[in-house]
Amino acid sequence: AKLLRAFPEVLIMIKGISAAARSVFFTIFLLILVLYIFGIAFTQICSGPDTPSDLRAKFLNVPESMLTLLFHGVFMDDMVDLLTPLRQNALAFA
Predict the structure, then answer these.
(1) CB 49: neighbour CB atoms within 10 A?
(2) Angle, to 10 degrees, between the axis of helix 8-45 and the axis of helix 79-89?
(3) pLDDT for 25-84, tens place per residue?
């Protein structure tokens, strides 16, 4: 308590963080919901017998699909390697 009285800026920052916590929670919730929906869609699309094995491995089940979408969406590394087989399988989603 004495520290907060000595540094009122810290108290202002703590109040700001607590006020933003609800918005941050709902933003993360919506991002997870979008990942879940697209994870289901891509798992269904890539479950066919004509799907390349490397693409099927990335979208094997819903959690794996969500993780693949998160990694490739956040890091954007090798996006072409992910989208090329997906485009060949389902043009609407690539």
Answers:
(1) 5
(2) 40
(3) 999 999 999 999 999 999 999 888 888 888 888 899 999 999 889 888 877 777 767 776
